[in-house]
Amino acid sequence: MAKTIFDAADRQALLARIERLDPTAHPRWGKFTAPKMVSHLISAVRMALGEERAAPRASFLSNRVMRWFIIYVMPWPKGAPTAPEMLSRAPDSWADDLRLLAQLIERAAVNGRAGTWHPHPAFGDLSADDWGALVHRHVAHHLTQFGA
């Protein structure tokens, strides 16, 4: 079973990893700095909640089978492209951004399986379960990028 932000133990493990982040850590791959990566994740969770918008992009990723495979099975590529809107937020103070990211993850968890979720720019409409797994996996992917 996939890890999800809707499971309290999975979410708490993710939040503990966020607390271990070091703002000066060098990435194992990619171009992000640790503060820019946290800003990226803040934008991504806000997008899922409908608080930020990202223009939809038609692609093979909106295919239901492909989407499931990517969210739940496939190893994620390092340095894959992302929506430009999820790269535009400037980092704030490190402590404030870590706190905000944790709060957004908690809010997304409270939004839950019955809440409103917004379309993903590449995957299109996702179920709440897909969003729960995708948010967890996306955050975990970037935490691994910085050794947390």
Task: Offer a concise description of the structure.
49% of the residues lie in helices and 0% in strands.
Question: What do these coordinates show?
Answer:
- This protein has 148 residues and is mainly α.
- The chain has one domain: Four Helix Bundle (Hemerythrin (Met), subunit A) (Up-down Bundle).
- The protein is built from five helices and no strands.
- Helix 1 runs antiparallel to helix 4 (94-111), helix 1 packs parallel to helix 5 and helix 2 packs antiparallel against helix 5 (128-145).
- The longest helix is centred in the C-terminal third of the chain and has 18 residues, at 94-111.
- The two termini are 22 Å apart.
- The mean pLDDT is 91.
Topology:
Blueprint: H1 8-19, H2 34-49, H3 64-72, H4 94-111, H5 128-145
Helix pairs in contact: 1-4, 1-5, 2-4, 2-5
CATH topology: Four Helix Bundle (Hemerythrin (Met), subunit A)
- Helical content band: 40-55%
- What is the arithmetic mean of pLDDT? 91
Strand count, sense and closure of the main sheet?
none
Give the terminus-to-terminus CA distance: 22 Å
Q: How large a portion of the residues is in β-strands, by DSSP E?
A: under 5%
Can you tell me the overall shape? globular
Number of helices: 5
Please give the domain count.
1
State the total count of DSSP E strands: 0
- Give the class from helix and strand content and strand pairing: mainly alpha
List descriptors:
5 helices; about 50% helix; Four Helix Bundle (Hemerythrin (Met), subunit A); about 150 residues; mainly alpha
